[in-house]
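Intended use. Records like the one below are meant for learning the mapping from a protein sequence to its folded structure. Do not use them to infer anything beyond what is encoded.
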Amino acid sequence: MTTVEPLEFEKPIVNLERQLAELRDRAADSDLDMSSEMKRIEDKLTRMKSEIYRNLSPWQRVQIARHTQRPFMLDYVEHCFDDYVELHGDRHIGEDEAMPGGFARIEGRRVVVIGHQKGRDTKENLRRNFGSAHPEGYRKALRLMKLAEKFGLPVVTLIDTPGAYPGIGAEERNIAEAIAYNLREMMLLRTPVVAVVIGEGGSGGALGIGVADRVLMMENSYYSVISPEGCAAILWKDRKYATEAAQALKLSAADLLGLGIIDEVVPEPMGGAHHDHVASANNLKSHLLKHLGELESVGTDELLELRYQKYRGFGDFRERGRR
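Structure written out for the chain above:
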């Protein structure tokens, strides 16, 4: 089993786990009864985990969302879907491996699944461009959505990107137009769309495949117009204030659910999805099936009207005591 790299705030837990492992080894190698001492540490460990993981700050959730051992898009495809057939190319420029997608089945239901894919090592990150798609990725995504519309298939998008690629080549090939075009066309897509933020949901790069009838977030993901570091650099003139920026941005799943921006939070195993890929995928699968089943019974015209009303309602703000 792969060792999970601890984050800074998890180090007290790791130290206690190490103490517990050492006690167990000593007990196994001798005739000493250490059960009471082990029980004391186990109880302390349980309390510590509960206290830390139930009171995570927005910045700590951002750190979990970026964990390199967290399940990525294709990990969820492997565990949640069957018969995945990847399609390639945008039919204009070429292929973008930061945005894989294709046909699949989920419990027998045919769907089109699209998402951002990161890498776990340097070689794969270069191949996947660190999960930051080029214009070709967004144009390919829309091409697949149009195929889904043509064949009457629902669309599932899995969002995990720090943002669309900001390089010169992407600008030359019109990354802003590609994202803007997706926003418009997804609003008009005549088939159900379910979007899930599985890790990072950064800026327009996330929104480019995020216009959906139902928007879900994994418990330890984030969804924001800008990264906490970027926000801190603008407002505080120093990236060291990322913790404060994360709090102010209201980027966590719980905050966004309360604001009505998303529709549901998908729970993760204690400590985050990187601790148990299969359990996380099973949770996501059950939520996808629920929402796909609910949308399946909605007529196309009603679906479009509900989608319009959903996004029309964003930004409705009323002060207390005023009408």
